[in-house]
Each structure stands twice: as C-alpha cells, then as structure tokens.
Specification:
elongated, about 400 residues, about 35% helix, 15 helices, formyl-coa transferase, domain 3, 6-stranded parallel sheet, alpha/beta
C-alpha cells in the first residue's frame, strides 16, 4: 500500500513556522508539497546562529525536508500566473499572509475556486480572517501574551513567562493539519467533490489548547492559579523535588498512586498519618507533606528514583535537558527521527523529527532531502506547461 496522502498535491505559500510545519505533517504522510518562496527565500532559512548554515537553518530543515522549492515573484504577472496554475493543479493550498494579501495578489479562494472547485484552501493567521483584530500582526510570543498563556506559566514570583519554544506555532500547525485532513476527507465523500475554506487563527488555536483551564472559568467562573511545577491537579504529590543528584517530577494524583509512592519511598507510615491519609487532608497539610517528601527524595539520585517509582507504578520522571532527553534509549527504534540529505556542505545530512506516531504499515516518514532555494522551479513549471496549465 501507499502512504495515506500519496498522490495528494499541496501548494504551500506559507513561511516561517506554523504554515510550513502544518504542510510538513502532510508531507510525512506522503503528500507532494510544493513550497513557493520569494527570491530571498523563506525567512526561516536564516533562523540560525551558524554562518555556514545561512539559507538552510536547522528549524527550516525540520519543517521543510521532502518538499519541492519553487521561486516565484508574486508581484509580477508571470509569477502570479504560475501561482494560479499551481493552485489549479493542487488538492490543498496553504497560505499565511496577512488577511487580505492573498486576495490582493489574485490568489484568494474566490479567485481560484472557479478553476479548481475542489481546492481545499487553508489560511493561517494570528487572529483569523474575520473579527476586529484580523489585521493585527502577530507572532508566537505575542499570542502567548494576548491569550493569557504567559500568565499561567511559572510561579507567582516569576511574572508572566513565555513557554520556551514556539508552542503557539506548533499547536496552530497541528490544528491546521487536522482541519485540512478533515476537509480532504469531506471532499472525498462529497458527490460533487466540493472544496473547503479552512480559516485557522493562532489565537483561537491557543485558546482551544488551554481548554482544561478555560473551562474552569467558563463553567465555574474560577480563575486559574499559577502553580510553578505543581501539576494541574494541585496535589502536593504532583510536583518537582530535589534529589541527591538532579530533580524529579512526580505525578501521584490518585489515592492508590500516593499509597504506592509512600511505600516506594519507604515511608508507608505517611498513609497512617491523618494529615496525609486522604486527598482533602493532603491539600490542607500541603507544606507539611512536602517537607516529608523532600527529606525522602534526598537519599537517592533522580535517575535511581525514576527507576524505583516506575517499578512501583508511580508516574515519575527525572528532569532532563533537551539534549539528555534526545539520548534516551526509549526513543531508539521508535522511528521518531529521520536522516535526510541537505544541500549544505557544512551539514550534508540532517537528523529531523518524524510525525510522532506509528502506523502498522506505510506510516509517516520519508527520506527525501531538504530543498535548496528554487531547486525545483524549472521542474514544476515545465510540468505545469506540459499539462497546459501555464
């Protein structure tokens, strides 16, 4: 069998992170993704501190390997004609210009649907294509701020804190990929084969991402509290503790997990103490229990406790750096990484991430290289001319 999106063509007019990452998920599922870039290239080609990778920055590789790169000047008649021809040949089109820009270029959905009524047209923007803020510019950290996400991160002493990677872009990309796949399935089931307009707002996506917190406000008018490394449950047994070497995070939130935690810590007596015997009692005597746990964890290293607690059936994990996490034996053999060729002399091969899930067969992944800027321009334009589209 072929991959699920084999034969699907995606015209990718997006840049930087959210759009390219969304189409990368489709690429990993077998879609042919044609990336349209200006003469200077996608700005993310230059998101690197290495001079020898200018034009092929590490984040660019991770979000664009396996795609075809076509350079078009969308300000010229010739470039726009080629873009329309490409859109006419595509199943899916993705753009993340500011709202209204695609239409001004003659590349809005209304401009393209006559020539391709089955086109799935996905727009990704900070605030969506409607509403009073639709024209506001935005990037990941701005949406983190405006959505309230930053006020949920860290402790009260920290002040609003940005999450340390572009989580808004990443979740928006996932939302866009999910929506495009749903629209594609809908089109396949539609007797008329009609396309769909997909409008992804980074702000909307972020609010949905925070639904566990927002529903407390929407349903009970209960404002969330910042809890640092404390888990969402608020339980004192769901927190991060210092050990003899390193730190460990515990997620004992159910009564049986707390009982197993105390037994593994060789402190079963804590469960006999009326201050700690029930969830309500533990919350009321939070600090006292924390002191007992701190003393217990201090006798072994985080790595030792991780193994002990795993055997005891208690959710627990050593606090690792990202580099340490990448070296976990658990990740080997999980098909999480792909090795692809690149046109960069300084890094002729690059290890990037796969889709993050498994199929029984014909699963996500590919071995196609990272494209050089404009590498496939002539190939794609020649194909469009041969098909009589250009």
């Amino acid at each position: 069998m072929a991959q699920p999106l084999a034969g699907v063509r995606v015209a990718d007019f997006s840049h930087v992170i959210a759009g390219p990452l969304a189409t990368q998920f489709l690429c990993l599922l077998g879609a042919e993704v044609i990336k349209v870039e200006p003469a200077a290239g996608d700005a993310m080609r230059y998101y690197t501190r290495r001079d020898d990778l200018q034009g092929l920055a590490e984040p660019f590789m991770g979000a664009n390997a396996g795609k075809k790169s076509v350079v078009l000047d969308l300000k010229s008649d010739e470039g726009r004609a080629a873009a329309r021809a490409l859109a006419a040949s595509a199943d899916i089109l993705v753009e993340n210009f500011r709202p209204g820009v695609a239409a001004r270029l003659g590349l809005g959905h209304e401009d393209l649907k006559t020539g391709n009524p089955g086109l799935i047209y996905c727009s990704i923007s900070g605030f969506g294509q409607s509403g009073p803020m639709r024209d506001y510019p935005a990037i990941d950290q701005v949406i983190q701020s405006m959505s309230g996400l930053m006020t949920l991160t860290g402790s009260d002493a920290d002040g609003p804190t940005r999450i340390g990677f572009p989580i808004v872009d990443t979740y928006s990309a996932l939302m866009a990929a999910f929506a495009m796949l749903a629209a594609y399935a809908q089109r396949q089931a539609d007797p008329e084969g009609r396309g769909q307009v997909v409008d992804v707002s980074m702000l909307d996506a972020t609010m949905v991402m925070m639904s566990s917190v927002l529903c407390q406000i929407l349903v009970s008018d209960r404002a969330p509290v910042r809890s640092g490394n404390r888990g969402f449950s608020g339980a004192p047994t769901a927190d991060t503790f210092d050990t003899a070497e390193g730190q460990i995070t515990i997620g004992a939130v159910q009564q049986n997990q707390v009982e197993r935690l105390c037994a593994a810590l060789e402190r079963p007596d804590l469960m006999d103490d009326p201050r700690f015997a029930t969830p309500a009692a533990r919350m009321e005597n939070d600090m006292a229990l924390q002191e007992e746990l701190k003393a217990a964890f201090a006798v072994r290293s985080a790595e030792e406790w991780e193994a002990v607690l795993a055997r005891a059936g208690v959710p627990a994990g050593k606090v690792r750096t990202v580099g340490e996490a990448l070296d976990l034996d658990q990740l080997r053999g999980r098909d999480l990484f792909l090795d692809v060729a690149t046109p960069a002399a300084a890094a002729p091969t690059a290890r990037i991430l796969n889709a993050g899930f498994h199929f029984d067969h014909d699963g996500p992944g590919h071995d196609r290289p990272v494209p050089a800027l404009g590498e496939h321009t002539e190939e794609v334009l020649a194909e469009l001319r041969a098909a009589g589209r250009l």
